[in-house]
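[job 0417] fold request received: Flavin reductase family protein
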Amino acid sequence: MHYGDTRPESLTFDPFKAIIAPRPIGWIGTRNADGVPNLGPYSYFNAIGNSPHMICFTSDGLKHSVVNARDRGEFTFSLATEALAEAMNISSEAMPDGENEFAKAGLALGTSIATNAPFVADSPAALECVTLSVTELTESVTPINRFMVIGQVVQTHIRDEYITGGRFDTVKARPIARMGYRDYATVTDAWELMRPGD
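[job 0417] inference complete; emitting structure tokens
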């Protein structure tokens, strides 16, 4: 099977997100213009640079996380895990500006060092970021009301119990990732593959 712009009738649901999977979840923390905490999960998210550390997330529409990251120049990423999955899901609700998703999901705010953006205190790891750019994406040259935010990591927070042998213990943290439809995956196993030059 192959197709272009028109999906075959036999594919009842769009498989795109299921093919590009699993995708890490950007659990983005910000504050609005009045300083109220905001939290939302984004599955179009990833690391995009190692030196300096940089991450990005994209949003369908100009949502609160994008506006806050743009206007305040900062945001955080908190690792979404199996233990925090229900809270992550609660924080995905579309709420009016000024509503506090941290409070709605029963989450404590972590204490940031280099920014004023909140993160999830109970997350095994979190990143404080300064916003480098906010760009409206286009199809050819036509804006499509989809926005990409790029940030540079300025502080990294790791809970001590998730450090094993000098490394962040990803399996112990049990992060969750988004797949297609309403499907998620949990990291429960890791294996090592050395490169030819190692």
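[job 0417] notes: The chain has a mean pLDDT of 97. The chain has one domain: 23-186.
[job 0417] exit 0
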